[in-house]
Amino acid sequence: MLTSHAYSLLLLSCHFTPPHHTRRYTTAPASIHYYTVEWPAADLSWSDFRGKVLGATDPNEAEAGSARRSILEQWESLGLPGKPNTGDNGVHASASPFEALAERVNWLGQDLERDVYGRGLLGAGVTAATLGAWSQDPAVVYGGKAQSIFDLLEDLDADACLEKAADISATQKAAAL
């Protein structure tokens, strides 16, 4: 169980794009600034962190006091080149503990076996090969339909995300037999 641990995610000052689409954020003068954010899992759910602390993806719909609403209200004084919108909303946070792992692997070169959540998924029976493939957000068949793995695991807390990922992996293994 991971509930006794603090969450850890990759918080980027940009919107997530797969590594092969990073030119927009990595070609000078643009840059990526990232932070690893942790908080006690018992005090704040993953969904509330994303929805209430960061705010809705569309900054116009974000709660007052959230990061995205604050960026929207202060974009000029912050020196941003344009008003934040759904695509460029000032900040990105991983949509789930699994997506956070995928982003650490994809963006930072983190090794699955050295990552706490990676070890948890490996220990739950999800293979390194599966995690590598899933880190590119493929469509996986689950519940009778093909869906984005990131979408399937979105806003789940750490334990629920791990359990569902293990179930998806087991379902895929059974279907391959």
Strand and helix map with partners:
Elements: E1 6-12, H1 23-26, E2 34-40, H2 46-54, H3 67-74, E3 92-93, H4 97-108, H5 116-123, H6 128-134, E4 139-142, E5 145-148, H7 149-153, H8 158-176
Antiparallel strand pairs: 1-2, 1-3, 4-5
Describe the 3D structure.
Helix content is 41%, strand content 14%. Mean pLDDT is 84; it is low at 1-20. The protein is α+β, with helices and mostly antiparallel strands. It is globular, with a radius of gyration of 17 Å. It has helices spanning 23-26, 46-54, 67-74, 97-108, 116-123, 128-134, 149-153, 158-176; strands at residues 6-12, 34-40, 92-93, 139-142, 145-148. It has 2 domains: 6-93, no CATH class; 112-176, no CATH class. It has a 3-stranded antiparallel beta sheet with strand order 2-1-3. Strands 4-5 form a two-stranded antiparallel sheet. It contains 8 helices and 5 strands; from the N terminus they run βαβααβαααββαα.
Shape: globular
Helix content: 40-55%
- Chain-averaged pLDDT: 84
Whole-Å distance between the termini? 29 Å
Q: Regions with pLDDT < 50 over 5+ consecutive residues?
A: 1-20
> Total domains, how many?
2
Secondary-structure element series: EHEHHEHHHEEHH
What kind of sheet is the major sheet? 3 strands, antiparallel
Spatial ordering of strands, largest sheet: 2-1-3
The radius of gyration is 17 Å
The total beta strand count reads 5
Hey, roughly how much beta strand do the residues contain?
A: 5-15%
Q: What count of helical segments does DSSP give? A: 8
Helical/strand content category: alpha+beta
